[in-house]
Write a structure and sequence with these properties.
The complex is a heterodimer of chains A (about 220) and B (about 350).
Chain A: H1 3-40, H2 50-65, H3 68-74, H4 76-83, H5 89-113, H6 117-125, H7 130-141, H8 143-169, H9 171-182, H10 186-214
Chain B: E1 2-11, E2 18-28, E3 33-38, H1 44-51, E4 59-64, E5 67-68, H2 74-82, E6 84-87, H3 99-109, H4 114-127, H5 143-155, E7 161-165, H6 173-190, E8 193-198, H7 201-207, E9 210-215, E10 218-224, H8 225-230, H9 235-245, H10 251-256, E11 265-274, H11 282-290, E12 293-304, E13 307-317, H12 320-332, E14 336-344
Parallel strand pairs in B: 3-8, 3-9, 6-7, 7-8
Antiparallel strand pairs in B: 1-2, 1-4, 4-5, 9-10, 11-13, 11-14, 12-13
The chains are: A mainly alpha (about 220), B alpha/beta (about 350).
Chain lengths: ~220, ~350
């Protein structure tokens, strides 16, 4: 393999990691609060607001029901407004983030769902405010489930980022399409797939390790 | 001091309304241990949750240490809850916190400094006998140890009142008695008022001063524990007592029991005696003075706190007049006589 080829693959891998990292971090920062809101505003919950809960639920479902490839194209004007272009890894990070937010939110909500209602009740009996319950009870107690959810998100983002590559996003998906498919270079195709598999395995192992470390049950 | 006046709680409305509590009145003086006993679904849980407003009563007043709880704003309610500790059937410890950090939680919520927390938590762990477990996680503890941690946690904010929600129901009998002993010590040493709900007479018998019986959301009895165990006022109270004492006629006899007397039957009675009657040889006197023979089917003596309670199921053998006379004789000596039925004479 030529050194030019090597540079190309290295660059594509870094681009993929960049897209996954940027969208993963932003989606977590926005999806975590949304997931908590989806949970605590439920009827009979600590901040019961049934109407808001319904609205948030519908928005989240809409976000989750749009196929990623369509979302990517549909929000091009918004992406341009935000990063000034619709191609490249920065541009690809915008739809990736938007797709990941509702995804993260539902996974966080599911993780919170696993907490025994008795823990919330006992915190209330101690005079905890809703904010204290969220920060001292809900999030710490759900941290295993939250890490599992974020791991799933990262793995999903790896595959979504490859899709983003297909429409000019860059990264490993772009490399695989342009060199592996269009130029019919099976070696590149194979290397691309192997790197993607290694990335996914790596994220999954890291996530599993962190879950094990946080587990006290 | 806890004072509930006319407390009602209704879930839903219209035809589907469920009246979990109806006009409950209950006064628990400072420093006493009060038990509320009832079957599942009778409203015990709702009742205890109305004290710290985990459930808000539909109507009525809840006074804790003279403070009306139902009128408090959120912030004031949280302040008030710092003075009301609560423990639960399933302990409700945070799994991701160590024993120390679990007990520290209420103090963190109150905004105490780390050093003050340490000074408070360690003596509490000492008191519940778990000082050596401070760095362990709840999953490493037994049920009894978890409840001890929960008790230490409930006491961290120096409450005046402790609510116990079926606190021993998930524990085995031995662990139950050690937890009850701890609660009694706490009541004794710290003067904390304890309200506990339970379905176990054993719990009431061993630590309560007074007991209320709840049925279908209503308090149907409220008595000193000694009185309740010697003379429950309601059928439900008697059912609980008989169940606890495991005293009921043998099945074989129950099948032969007839409701009204006839020529060839004699009465089967349940005798309950307390106080002086326990130490008086009444049965032998009965035989001498009324010429009635007594066939004892079951008998039991229980000590309920400072009282002794005797129970007996017996057949009275004699003529109709003789057995009637015998029952009057027993009643005259402060025994409770309950005729369970009549059986055919054995031939």
């Amino acid at each position: 393999m030529s050194s030019a080829m090597f540079d190309l693959i290295l660059q594509a891998t870094l681009d993929t990691l960049y897209m996954v990292a940027v969208s993963g971090v932003i989606a977590t920062l926005l999806g975590l609060p949304l997931g908590v809101m989806l949970y605590v505003t439920r009827p009979r919950q600590i901040l019961a607001m049934p109407v808001l809960n319904q609205v948030l639920g519908i928005i989240t479902n809409i976000g989750r029901s749009i196929p990623f490839i369509i979302l990517m194209v549909a929000i091009i004007p918004f992406t341009r407004m935000l990063v000034g272009t619709s191609i490249g890894i920065n541009a690809a990070s915008v739809p990736l983030t938007i797709a990941a937010i509702p995804f993260v939110a539902r996974l966080i909500e599911g993780a919170l769902n696993e907490i025994s209602p008795g823990l919330i009740e006992s915190a209330q009996s101690m005079g905890a405010t809703p904010w204290q319950i969220i920060t001292k009870v809900l999030i710490p107690e759900a941290r295993g489930g939250i890490i599992t959810g974020l791991t799933i998100t990262l793995v999903t983002l790896v595959s979504y980022s490859a899709m983003a590559g297909a429409v000019g996003g860059g990264g490993l998906g772009d490399l695989g399409i342009r060199y592996g498919y269009n130029r019919f270079n099976p070696t590149i195709m194979l290397i691309t797939v192997v790197i993607l598999v290694v990335l996914v395995q790596g994220f999954q192992s890291l996530g599993d390790y962190l879950v094990r470390k946080s587990d006290r049950k | 001091m806890i004072e509930l006046s006319n407390v009602s709680k209704t879930y839903g409305s219209g035809d589907s309304a469920v009246h979990a509590l109806q006009n409950v009145n209950l006064t628990i003086p400072k420093g006493t241990i009060h038990g509320v006993i009832g079957l599942s679904g009778a409203g015990k849980s709702t009742l205890i949750r109305c004290v710290n407003l985990l459930e808000r009563p539909t109507s009525g007043s809840v006074l804790v240490d003279g403070q009306e709880m139902t009128g408090l704003r959120r912030r004031e309610l949280n302040q008030a809850r710092h003075r009301i500790g609560m423990i639960f059937q399933h302990f409700n410890l945070l799994t991701t916190r160590t024993v120390f950090d679990n007990v520290a939680l209420p103090l963190e919520l109150m905004g105490e400094k780390r050093s003050a927390i340490k000074n408070r938590v360690l003596p509490l762990l000492e008191m519940v006998g778990l000082a050596d477990k401070a760095k362990q996680y709840p999953a490493q503890l037994s049920g009894g140890q978890k409840q001890r941690v929960a008790i230490a946690r409930a006491l961290a904010s120096k409450p005046n009142v402790l609510l116990c929600d079926e606190a021993t129901s998930a524990l085995d009998p031995q662990t139950t008695s050690s937890i009850l002993e701890l609660l009694r010590d706490i009541n004794h040493q710290l003067g904390i008022t304890i309200l506990l709900i339970t379905h176990e007479m054993e719990v009431v018998k061993s630590i309560c001063h007074r007991v209320s019986l709840i049925s279908d959301g209503k308090l149907v009895e409220d008595a000193e524990v000694g009185d309740f165990f010697t003379a429950p006022a309601t059928q439900l109270g008697r059912d609980f007592l008989n169940d606890f004492l495991q005293l009921s006629p043998p099945k074989e006899l129950l099948e032969r029991l007839e409701e009204s007397p006839s020529e060839h039957t004699h009465p089967v009675v349940r005798l309950t005696f307390s106080g002086d009657a326990v130490s008086t040889p009444l049965i032998s006197r009965l035989a001498r003075e009324c010429s009635v023979d007594v066939s004892i089917l079951q008998a039991k003596v229980e000590s309920i706190q400072d009282r002794t309670l005797g129970l007996m199921i017996a057949e009275l053998l004699g003529s109709h007049e003789q057995t009637q006379q015998a029952m009057s004789y027993l009643e005259a000596h402060q025994l409770q006589v309950e005729v369970l039925g009549h059986v055919q004479r054995n031939v």
